[in-house]
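To: structure subgroup
Subject: Chain for Friday's discussion

All,

I'm putting the inputs and outputs inline so they're searchable in the archive.
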Amino acid sequence: MTSPEPPSTSAPHDNGSDLVLLEGPRSRIRELGTILRAGRDFIRGYRTLHFVGPCVTIFGSARLVEDHPAYAQARELGAAVSRLGFTVMTGGGPGVMEAANRGARDVGGPSVGCNIELPFEQDPNPYLDVSVTCRYFFVRKVLLFKYSYAFVALPGGLGTLDELTEALTLIQTGKIKQFPVVLMGVDYWQPFVDMLRTMAQAHTISPHDVDLMLVTDSIHEASQHIERHAIQPFGLTKAVPPSPWKVLGERALGRRVG
């Protein structure tokens, strides 16, 4: 088995895309242009990620450097997830995302990223086999969720919280199946868990919603939880991936050996 060389896909630099998208009514021509650009984002993302296989998406801060404990934990987690047979997917940036992709690379597993154009923290990390860069946040989130059978959140900021609550909302409302959600870092996530319990007591969410997550500091426990609630319930196997179409310039994503 040889290492693939999938294309890295990036969009033109345009930090104002979401600002324009959300600025209110505009001319019909400009609105049509926005729809077409978003559609191009989707086509680029679908085409690039079509062969990634079942993923586990790992969320976390772009600001945590290599000597931070969460970086080491994310790297170990990426390796553990990869050993289960999953592709490690992240937001493609630095920090915790880089560490998770690096962990997959450490054990020869596939590693992919869905990056976003930002004025800062936007460059893809160097541990990606496949990378796609989106203009629009909502397109990026669709791609992160579309290919994933589990979600893991490590310490992060507002972006991580947005992605985590999106995953929980999609599961709660039945928009996606009840995939496992893991929060790594008991002390870090305790205020969030307490807030959910407050919401349950106020009857704004169901008490059952608090149980949608596993909160742990243990890589082994997280790995077992993903195996038990993602691999077994959905019958995931080492299936043969769909064949790429060479006429479209497609390339399969495989595991490194050696």
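Points worth raising on Friday:
The longest helix spans residues 28-49.
The longest strand covers residues 111-116.

D.
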